[in-house]
What does this fold into?
Amino acid sequence: MANDQTYNIPMRFRKIENLHIFFWLFKDISWCMIFRPLGIAMIFPTLIIAIIISIRTRKFMSELCHNVAIVFWITANAYWMISEFFHFDTIVFYGEITYKHLAIIPFGIGIIILVYYYLVWNPMHKNLIETM
It folds into this structure.
């Protein structure tokens, strides 16, 4: 398959991505086990590393869009976790919408970024080959 393209991730990016997964898992395990201090503490390295990854991949639109969507996913996930930790997840915000449901805002922003990438940017740049 002579036309196959290879996607390579530099080792310095891969190491920080692996560290990111480690922190993210600790955050979610803390949420599951209701370890509030650890769960809240893990928000910061998880989110900071996601932002660093986004900045490092900013030259590649496909990577940037997906990594920024992950930043918003972690933000939504962290807000949801905090809403449960501090018991305001079931308080009604408006109508049948509770404060936990407000996590849909950052989740939705992430989806909008990916929809833009796949439906607008990518078709307009289909001949562009992005490499890292």
Remarks:
- Helices lie at 11-32, 36-56, 61-85, 104-124.
